[in-house]
Design brief:
heterotrimer, A mainly alpha (221), B mainly alpha (216), C alpha/beta (300), A: 221 residues, mainly alpha, 2 domains, 8 helices, extended, B: mainly alpha, 6 helices
Chain lengths: 221, 216, 300
């Protein structure tokens, strides 16, 4: 029961989507659309599961008076305040309105709290990538040198940096063109090889899942 | 409200940047706010856009159309997913998970086969000798590039083939594959630097333009 | 005044790099926080200098502009905003420039997002585009000239369902208006009624999924703007013709602004972008000079 039902569900869902690619007619297309509806709903519930789990984990930390209980409290308060504002704006707006409309409190929260926090978190990576380049990016052997040279010309060629240095001699953007050449040929070749390799891997894994050979997602080996 | 918002945004930005000096309580507070608000945002968006718009309106239509009773099964699977929170009957959550994994496997198997395998193989082999549409003469630049792509793709795939030891001609080919992959990763690195710097430019521009009014 | 001070400081920062090089060669690399400071200055000072730099329009960008130029007034364009604020500095300028171009050319724009934040970013892009006097005087009407369908959960399965019926995934738009009562959507059932898809993508779900499903399975035409991190991954699709044009990162955005004559944020940022690249390149060179000199000493 604990193993068989999930296995059957996996196989049916997988076969419907695989077969409908070849037979885009009734009943497969209809089944595919119905399954698509269900997936949208299940994924929304999954997000709520994540939010509820965050509350659960944070409450446990507060209850056990762990070191970071204070920060867990902030997480819960911020989560609940966001939910409160979102529900209020979503339900009180009336017809022809949305919680994300400009001028709502939720939009204010998005623009002035969510946006700076998420943007700055990712922006900090700029410092770390530069520091790592200085300390670890070395031409130790031929392969590393190739990597470095490609990075060097792409970094200097995709912005007008190297071409401005050439400006006194020529107006032709040679470095921009060379960076474009790297992207269009050697990079495309390497990416295509990686892409085909990944595609073959995904195809075989998918087949194993649909046929019930791969069972790790249902807790089996 | 706008001015207050800009000040809040600026202080939160500086709070996150304070981590660059060292880990500190201000950063941790900002980080916790980020986690809470982010989770709340995703939950609200999924509530109104997916659960309300898709499920609720579907089963209780207001425009006179027939209710879509099949959506109840989706909701049932969703509720089963929430049972994950229970330690006793949490195993039932494997059913909706199995549904998602199965559907994704079925969809991906065909999508990746067509778009990422077959179409890429065809694109690699097509038009290796490139001629000008007007003069019908060989365009050497593009032709050499296309030949490079064939060599790069084949040698790259040979490198990824681990069922045979990389020795002899096979080993040399795999080595050429590594060179192409290294150029690929190098170009990737260059683009990654570009991306990260852009994000930082965005933040500093906000501080200078909207907060400090140093820029027009 | 600010610009002059910033220029002078930039020269001082540049000259101080000689000292950094000296220290690095002598086996005393600067501390990571000093590297952070240099990177911060390499972005802050060029922004204050308020200079721009000329960008040549590359073939990938021109391909997208050509595809847009082929569209006629009234063409139905689906703009999928699949990113969040963390990627906005790269993708938002592309979104604004695209909206300006689309509205000026009288395209009918249908906005949606596979990321929940996408439709909100689209609202901001539309607001910014509306500030343009040429667009403002058109008095564009929501539901007639443009619409925001909002976000729907399900990632690639949303595109898959849209292949047979848009309404199935978006029975209401973002403002909770019924699909059938929106004039712009009256003759739109699936991708066969869409003339062009423009996707702004920061990851998954994004451009790859749009190509795999909307383009390869349902025959739609798609161009994209990607973050620089993602752009290299979609180059094979560009060569195979699955993708019609690509804007890669900030430079792609600046090129698009130049090609469409819609100077915006990307064009103003490109100078700071250039100087920051120069700083990273300088750090890499210094690190390698020190590496080779140390190796030479060890061998000796």
């Amino acid at each position: 029961m604990r193993r068989e039902i999930p296995l059957i569900i996996t196989t049916i869902a997988g076969l419907v989507f695989a077969i409908s690619y070849f037979i885009p007619h009734w009943p497969f297309v209809e089944a595919e659309s119905i399954f698509g509806d269900w997936i949208a709903i299940v994924q929304a519930f999954a997000i709520w599961l994540g939010a509820l789990n965050l509350i659960k984990v944070s409450l446990e930390k507060i209850y056990r008076k762990k070191e970071d209980a204070f920060y867990s409290g902030i997480i819960i308060v911020c989560l609940l305040v966001t939910l409160g504002i979102g529900f209020y704006d979503g339900f009180s707006g009336g017809a022809q309105s949305s919680f994300r409309d400009t001028g709502t409190t939720f939009d204010w929260l998005y623009r002035f709290i969510y946006t700076p926090l998420t943007s700055t978190m990712f922006a900090m990576l700029a410092f770390f990538v530069a520091s790592a380049s200085y300390r670890a990016f070395r031409a130790r052997n031929f392969e590393a040198t190739l990597l470095l040279i490609a990075g060097f010309f792409v970094m200097g060629g995709r912005v007008p940096l190297f071409d401005l240095a050439l400006k006194p001699f020529t107006d032709v953007p040679y470095f921009s063109e060379f960076a474009g050449w790297i992207m269009a040929y050697p990079l495309t070749a390497g990416m295509t090889a990686i892409m085909i390799g990944i595609a073959l891997g995904i195809m075989s894994s998918s087949l194993r899942i649909i046929l019930g050979i791969e069972r790790s997602h249902i807790g089996g080996a | 409200m706008e001015l207050f918002g800009i000040w809040v945004a600026a202080l939160l930005t500086l709070g996150i940047f304070s981590f660059l000096y060292k880990d500190n309580p201000v950063y941790k507070i900002c980080e916790s706010i980020f986690i809470g608000v982010s989770a709340g945002y995703w939950a609200i968006a999924n509530f109104f856009d997916a659960l309300h718009k898709k499920f609720w309106v579907g089963v209780f239509p207001t425009d006179g159309s027939d209710p879509n009773y099949m959506l109840w099964f989706g909701a049932l699977l969703g509720v089963l997913m929430l049972l994950r929170l229970s330690s006793k009957i949490g195993w039932i959550a494997r059913w909706p998970l199995a549904f998602i994994v199965g559907a994704t496997a079925g969809l991906y198997m065909m999508l990746y086969f067509v778009s990422n395998a077959m179409n890429q193989v065809a694109s690699t082999m097509r038009d290796v000798i490139v001629t000008s549409p007007e003069t019908h003469l060989i365009m050497w630049g593009e032709t050499i590039g296309s030949i490079l792509i064939v060599i790069g793709v084949v040698s790259g795939l040979v490198y990824f083939f681990f069922s045979k030891e990389h020795k002899g001609v096979f080993g040399y080919t795999a080595r050429v594959g590594i060179w192409f992959l290294m150029i690929t990763f190098g170009a990737h690195f260059g683009y990654t630097v570009m991306s990260r710097m852009s994000l930082l430019i965005g933040r500093i521009d906000f501080l200078f333009r909207d907060w400090l009014h140093l820029l027009n | 005044m600010v610009s002059t001070i910033a220029t002078v400081l930039m020269w001082i920062v540049g000259l101080s790099m000689i000292y950094v090089l000296y220290r690095t060669i002598n086996g005393h690399p600067i501390e990571r926080r000093v590297v952070f400071l240099y990177i911060g200055l390499a972005i802050a000072l060029p922004l204050l200098m308020q200079k721009t730099a000329p960008v040549p329009v590359t073939a990938d960008v021109q391909k997208l502009v050509d595809a847009l130029d082929e569209l006629t007034p009234g063409s139905k364009v689906l703009a999928a905003f699949d990113f969040d604020p963390s990627s906005a500095p790269e993708l938002q300028p592309m979104g604004v420039a695209f909206m300006k171009y689309a509205f000026k050319h009288d395209f009918k724009v249908i906005v949606m997002g596979l990321w929940p934040q996408g439709p909100q970013q689209a609202n901001q892009a539309i607001e910014d585009a509306m500030l343009d006097p040429l667009i403002a005087e058109k008095n564009l009407v929501y539901g007639v000239d443009y619409v925001n369908l909002g976000y729907q959960a399900g990632a690639e399965f949303v595109i898959q369902s849209m292949g047979s019926d848009f309404k199935r995934m978006f029975p209401l738009d973002d403002r909770h208006i019924a699909y059938d009562s929106l004039e712009i959507l009256n003759d739109i059932t699936n991708f066969s009624n869409i003339d062009f898809i423009f996707n702004l993508s920061a990851g998954k779900p994004g451009t790859v999924e749009w190509i795999q499903i909307a383009v390869d399975r349902f025959g739609a035409k798609c161009g994209a703007g990607n973050t620089a991190v993602q752009a290299p991954q979609v180059y094979p699709y560009l060569r195979s013709g699955q993708l019609t044009g690509l804007l890669g990162g900030m430079s792609g955005g600046a090129e698009f602004e130049k090609a469409t004559n819609e100077k915006g944020q990307a064009s103003t940022f490109i100078f700071a972008q250039m100087i920051s690249h120069a700083m990273v390149i300088a750090f890499i060179i210094m690190g390698n000079i020190a590496f080779f000199m140390t190796r030479k000493k060890k061998k000796a």
